[in-house]
TrEMBL record:
Key words of the record: DNA recombination
InterPro entries: DNA_brk_join_enz (IPR011010), Integrase-like_cat_sf (IPR013762)
SUPFAM superfamilies attached to this UniProt entry: DNA breaking-rejoining enzymes (SSF56349)
Protein name: Site-specific integrase
Superkingdom of source: Bacteria
Length: 742
C-alpha cells in the first residue's frame, strides 16, 4: 500500500531524473507541449486516485518548469501532440522513446470513450513514474505504455471492450477488477490475447500500488519475420485392433492476431491441418508397412468425418433400436449405466466427455455455456448490435439421471463394455462406444441440421467449429432440435420397446445466443440512409471526402453481398467480376497447399451499385487530373484492373484498402469488427434455412476433405442464385439502393 505522507527530498530528486525520460534532447522544441500534457493528465485524475499518488504534486511542479509558452486551446494542443508522435514515427524512434510516445498519444477513434482513455493514460503515467523510481521494472513499463499507445491508435478494440469502468472506482478496486477479468480470460485459454493484454496493465498497476520488487526475465524470440501461431491439439479415438497399436492426434495451426475478428478468420481457414499417427508399442513391421498402415488410418478418419450413410463404422437403425431396448430394461441395465449410455447417445459425446459436462441436478438438465469474445463490446457499439446471453439449458429426459453423470468409474465402464459385447454376440451387431456417440451428429447432418446446433448439443467450442463464432440464433432452436431427436428415438424403438422420453420444463427465459454482431433492420437501414445523405450533401466535382463516402457505400454493399474476408486488397480487382452473369471470384485464403477460391453470385442491387461506382471512377479520373495526377492515375488503374478496385484518399494521398486502413476509416461510420458482415449474413442464411453445406461453401468454411464445387459436388449455380436472391431482398429492405455518384 502506498504511503500517503509527503515525499522526501531524495524521492523528489529521483522523480526529477525519472521525468527526464519524457523529455529527449532530440525533441527539445516540443518539451513545453509534452510538459503541458503531463500537467493536463495530472488534473484529469479523479480525487480518489490522487490520494494514492503522493508523487503527483512533485511531478506537476517539475513539468511546470518545462513550460515556456502560455496556455493554448485544447484542439491545438492535441494537434501538436499528434505532430510530435508523427515525427517520432517518421524517424522510427517510437521504440527508443516509448515513454514519450505514450505521453503524446492521442485517442483517434470517435467510437471509444475518450474520458476513460484519458483516465487510464493519467494513471499509467503516474504508475510508470513510480516504477521508474523503484527500479527493475523496465519491461512492465514498456508493455503498459505500448498497450495504452496502441489503444489510442484504435488497435486495441477487444482490450477496450474488457477494461473496467475506471472513473467511478478507486485504485484498489481497479486492480482487483483487472485481475478478475484477466484471470477469466486466461482460464478459458492460456493463450488469450485479451487476457495477456489485461495482464500487461494489471501487473505494473499492482506492483506500483503494493510496492512490489521488479523481476528481470530473459525472453526467447522467434525467428525474424515469423508470425506467431496458435496450435490446437485434439486426440482422436480409434476402434478395433488399431486402439492398442496406434494413437492419433489432430494438429491444427493458424496464425495468431491481435484482433478477435482476425483470429476468427484465421481459425476458419484451417490451412494447416495434419494427423499425427504414432505407434504405442514396438512393432515387427518395417517402416514401409507402418507408413501404409498410418495412411489407411488417416483415410478412414477422413471417411468417418464425412458421415456417409454407406460407412460401416456408423451405427444402423437396428443397432440403436436394439441398444434402446436393453437400456430401458431395469433388470439388465442399472440406472447409472443407462444414464451414461443415453447421455452419450443423445448428447453426441463420448463417455469421458459426458462426465466432464456441466449438469444441473435440481432440474435434471444440461447447462451449456456458449461464450464468444465478440459478446463483450464497448458501450457505443452495444446499441448497434443484438446482445446475446452466454448460458442456456437443455432439459434431459428423466431416464437420464444427471447427478450420476459426474463420475465415470471403472465399474460403469466395465458394465458398458460387457453390455455391448452381449448385444453384439446375441444380435450380430457391431456396436461400439464411438458408434453410439457419433449417431446424433450423423443423423442431424443427414437431416441438414446446421452444424452450430449440433456443436452446441455436443458441447463443442468455436475453436473446433468456426461456424459457432458467426451465427446468431435462439436457444429454442437448440432445444427443439434435441427434443426432435428424442422423438425420433421414441419412434425408432416403438416396434420393440415402447419408450416415452419425458423431461422437466426448464423455466428459463428464451433468449438469443451466439454472435451479437447482427444489426437490426432499423439500424442497418439508418446506416445506409446516413451514407447516402452524406454523399449527396458533398458538392463539387472531386473531393477526397466524397470519394471515401462513395467507397464506404459500395464496400459495405459488396461485403454483405459476398462475405469477402477483410484482407489487403479487399473485394479484389474489376477482373474478378463478371458483370454479365453477376459472378464474383473470391480468393481470400489458401487451402490444400494451393491457392484456391470460391465463386458467388452477386445480388442484382449490388451489381447496379457496382456499375455506378465504375462510372464514378471514370469521372474521377478526369476530375482528379486537374488536381492530382497520381490520384487520377489510380482511378484509371482501378478501371483497367491493374490495381485493386477500391482505395481511400487521405490528405490528397492514396491509401490502399488493408485491415488497418479499413479499421481507421470505418471507425467513424460503423465501429464494428471488420468481419461483422460475415456474422450478419451467416445468421441470415441460417434463419432462412439455407442448407448448411451451401452456407459453408458461400462462407469459405468448407472442410479440407469436403471442398465445395469440385467434381464430386452436387451444388450448382442455381443454388448460389438462391442465396443471391435472398441477400438482394434483404439489402433492398434496408434502404440499400442504387444512387448516382456522379
Amino acid at each position: 500500500m502506498n504511503n500517503k505522507s509527503e515525499i522526501s527530498r531524495f524521492d523528489s530528486e529521483t522523480l526529477k531524473n525519472v521525468l527526464n525520460n519524457a523529455f529527449p534532447q532530440e525533441l527539445v522544441d516540443s518539451h513545453s507541449c509534452i510538459a503541458q500534457e503531463i500537467i493536463n493528465l495530472s488534473q484529469t485524475l479523479s480525487y480518489q486516485y490522487q490520494l494514492d499518488f503522493p508523487e503527483l504534486e512533485t511531478i506537476k511542479s517539475l513539468a511546470q518548469l518545462k513550460i515556456s509558452n502560455t496556455q493554448i486551446p485544447v484542439d491545438e494542443h492535441k494537434k501538436n501532440l499528434t505532430f510530435i508522435y508523427q515525427a517520432l514515427h517518421k524517424k522510427k524512434k517510437i521504440l527508443k522513446y516509448y515513454f514519450t510516445a505514450f505521453i503524446v498519444s492521442v485517442m483517434r477513434s470517435p467510437s471509444h470513450d475518450h474520458q476513460q482513455f484519458e483516465h487510464y493514460k493519467a494513471i499509467t503515467l503516474l504508475v510508470c513514474a513510480k516504477l521508474y523510481a523503484m527500479g527493475n521494472h523496465e519491461t512492465p513499463i514498456k508493455t503498459v505504455c505500448n498497450e495504452i499507445r496502441q489503444w489510442s491508435l484504435g488497435k486495441r478494440n477487444d482490450l477496450a471492450n474488457n477494461l473496467p469502468d475506471v472513473i467511478d472506482i478507486d485504485m484498489k478496486r481497479l486492480i482487483d477488477e483487472l485481475d478478475s477479468k484477466r484471470k477469466e480470460k486466461l482460464e478459458i485459454s492460456k493463450s488469450s490475447r485479451v487476457g495477456k493484454q489485461l495482464s500487461k496493465i494489471h501487473v505494473p498497476y499492482y506492483d506500483s500500488f503494493y510496492n512490489k520488487d521488479g523481476i528481470l526475465r530473459s525472453k526467447r524470440l522467434r525467428a525474424p519475420g515469423t508470425p506467431p501461431t496458435t496450435l490446437i491439439v485434439n486426440t482422436i479415438e480409434l476402434e478395433g485392433t488399431d486402439v492398442d497399436t496406434f494413437q492419433v492426434t489432430e494438429l491444427m495451426e493458424f496464425q495468431a492476431h491481435q484482433e478477435v475478428w482476425a483470429n476468427e478468420e484465421a481459425a476458419s481457414e484451417r490451412t494447416k491441418r495434419q494427423l499425427l499417427i504414432s505407434i504405442k508399442n514396438a512393432s515387427d513391421n518395417g517402416y514401409a508397412v507402418q507408413k501404409l498402415q498410418a495412411q489407411a488410418i488417416g483415410n478412414q478418419i477422413q471417411k468417418n468425418n464425412l458421415l456417409l450413410p454407406c460407412n460401416i463404422n456408423l451405427a444402423t437403425k437396428f443397432e440403436i433400436q436394439t441398444l434402446l431396448s436393453y437400456c430401458m430394461n431395469p433388470s439388465i441395465v442399472c440406472e447409472k449405466t443407462r444414464s451414461f449410455l443415453l447421455a452419450s447417445l443423445t448428447l453426441g459425446s463420448s463417455f469421458e466427455r459426458v462426465s466432464q459436462l456441466n449438469f444441473n441436478s435440481a432440474n435434471n438438465s444440461l447447462v451449456i455455456e456458449h461464450t464468444l469474445p465478440t459478446q463483450k463490446q464497448r458501450k457505443p457499439i452495444i446499441k448497434l448490435i443484438t446482445p446475446t446471453k452466454t448460458t442456456f439449458f437443455i432439459a434431459l429426459p428423466y431416464d437420464i439421471t444427471a447427478n450420476l453423470l459426474n463420475d465415470l468409474d471403472d465399474s460403469t465402464s466395465d458394465k458398458i463394455s460387457k453390455l455391448l459385447s452381449t448385444i453384439n454376440k446375441k444380435h450380430g451387431t457391431r456396436l461400439t462406444t464411438t458408434k453410439i456417440s457419433s449417431y446424433l451428429r450423423f443423423l442431424l447432418k443427414k437431416e441438414s441440421i446446421d452444424p452450430t446446433i449440433i456443436a452446441l448439443i455436443q458441447g463443442e467450442t468455436a475453436k473446433t467449429n468456426p461456424e459457432l463464432s458467426y451465427t446468431h440464433l435462439s436457444d429454442l432452436d437448440v432445444k427443439q432440435t434435441y427434443d426432435r431427436f428424442l422423438s425420433y428415438l421414441e419412434n425408432l424403438s416403438s416396434k420393440t420397446t415402447k419408450i416415452k422420453f419425458e423431461h422437466q420444463d426448464c423455466r428459463t427465459i428464451q433468449g438469443q445466443i451466439g454472435s451479437p454482431l447482427v444489426m437490426s433492420d432499423e439500424v442497418l437501414s439508418t446506416f445506409f440512409e446516413t451514407l447516402e445523405t452524406r454523399i449527396n450533401s458533398i458538392s463539387g466535382s472531386y473531393s477526397s471526402q466524397q470519394h471515401n463516402f462513395v467507397t464506404y457505400y459500395v464496400l459495405f454493399t459488396l461485403a454483405i453481398s459476398s462475405g469477402y474476408r477483410p484482407v489487403t486488397g479487399w473485394l479484389g480487382k474489376i477482373t474478378d467480376y463478371n458483370l454479365l452473369n453477376l459472378s464474383l471470384w473470391i480468393s481470400d485464403k489458401e487451402m490444400l497447399q494451393s491457392e484456391t477460391g470460391r465463386l458467388i453470385i452477386l445480388p442484382k442491387i449490388a451489381l447496379r451499385i457496382l456499375k455506378r461506382y465504375l462510372q464514378y471512377l471514370k469521372a474521377g479520373a478526369v476530375d482528379a487530373s486537374r488536381v492530382n495526377l497520381d490520384i487520377s492515375a489510380r482511378y484509371q488503374q482501378a478501371i483497367t484492373g491493374e490495381q485493386h478496385l477500391f482505395f481511400f484518399i487521405t490528405d490528397d494521398a492514396i491509401e490502399e484498402v488493408t485491415p488497418s486502413t479499413m479499421a481507421a476509416h470505418f471507425d467513424s461510420v460503423l465501429p464494428l469488427p471488420l468481419n461483422w458482415h460475415r456474422h450478419y449474413v451467416r445468421s441470415l442464411l441460417f434463419k432462412k434455412e439455407i442448407h448448411p453445406e451451401l452456407i459453408a461453401a458461400w462462407m469459405g468454411h468448407a472442410q479440407l476433405n469436403e471442398p465445395a464445387f469440385t467434381r464430386f459436388s452436387s451444388y450448382s449455380i442455381g443454388d448460389l442464385n438462391k442465396i443471391s436472391s435472398l441477400i438482394n431482398k434483404k439489402l433492398t429492405s434496408v434502404n440499400c439502393k442504387e444512387i448516382s455518384f456522379v
